[in-house]
Amino acid sequence: MxxxxxxxxxxxxxxxxYNHLSKPHGGRLIDRVLVGKMKNKAKETAKELAKIHIDKExxxxxxxxxxxxxxxxxxxxxxxxxxxxxxxxRLTKGLPWTIPILLDVSKEDVKDLKEGDDIALIYNEEIxxxxxxxDIYKFDKKEIAEKVFGTTDPLHPGVVKTYNxxxxxxxxxIDLVEEFITPFQEYALAPSATRxxxxxxxxxxxxxxxxxxxxxxxxxxxxxxxxxxFDGLFINPLLGxxxxxxxxxEVILDAYKAxxxxxxPMERVVFGVLQTEMRYAGPREAIHHAIMRKxxxxxxxxxxxxxxxxxDYYPPYAAQEAFAEFPDLGITPVFFPSFYxxxxxxxxxxxxxxxxxxxYHLQFSGTKIRQSIVNEGRVPSELxxxxxxxxxxxxxxxxxxxx
Length: 403
Ligand SMILES: [Zn+2]
Known about the structure:
Elements: E1 5-9, E2 15-19, H1 36-48, E3 50-53, H2 56-66, E4 75-76, H3 79-88, E5 103-105, H4 107-110, E6 118-123, E7 126-132, E8 135-138, H5 141-149, H6 157-163, E9 168-176, H7 191-200, E10 206-211, H8 217-229, E11 232-239, H9 249-263, E12 269-271, E13 274-275, H10 282-296, E14 300-303, H11 318-322, E15 332-335, E16 339-342, E17 347-350, E18 361-363, H12 366-376, H13 386-394
Helix pairs in contact: 5-6, 9-13
The protein binds zinc ion.
């Protein structure tokens, strides 16, 4: 494998480390978006094809596949890849991959279909993509629950979703015909766009930050500590299906805009949203999050406490430990402990740099923030910047009400 890190001499004659923007996972950014004549032709072809109706999440995921967010995947997984991902956390050819990317359909959907057929994937009467069926296979939902989520507890949201899947899987490449447009499209930068941006800015190192929450001062401290070490910061909140009680996507977006405008050097930050669902798969999802950010061009990725976790299903630092299994990941994780406010240090610190007891510590807990908003109708200003708090209080109902 070619090394992407080396040393060079800068203008002052000092040795400095350089690190080219990460290559896409698998070496090549996938582009399966049809445009112009090809797109029109595909729309014509689709009229004659068998149609399978898909849900909103799948339509959005098709956009991600088409634009290379999930490179090297060019479609939904065939059985061999699916089994390798479950068992070895790698694609058949050996590349790290931890989350199965699957298309589930009903028996009725496939009763007249065979391997080698082309089909049209439809959402809301619109042709989203064509798919070339390479594999039609059955799968074991309980096995996914055990291997991916580490639990078969039907209360785990990822397990619930798995148990609700239809009974047959289709594997094969897709061609994106019509991207499903969400209200957040202008912030949904494609990997080709972020790569050009990072390059134009002359960044050699870019650290990615994943979030599914509004930013509190602890997050900001992590982001800025990381930004002190690297050329650029890519703040990339995940918008999409989450669980009841999480902040709504619109609130997260507005809160980040307020934070970045008021507290970040704009030239060193790129903000873009990633539209995909949260799976709450803890360690496996942390690796998946890193792979997607590698495709966006990040060289480094911040992994915090309980990354992509939920409840007590995963130990607090399991996600950080998971990276030890993947020395060949091609993006370097940066591990952070949680930050808290210490009234002796008089600053935001963490357990590695603050010697004081917990009686001096104020934790930045998402749950605590949520409780103050729900119970007291206020956003705690000691935990959140006033401009961000303003954004949240402007929303009557900032939380998702239904799963
Ligand atoms: Zn302290």
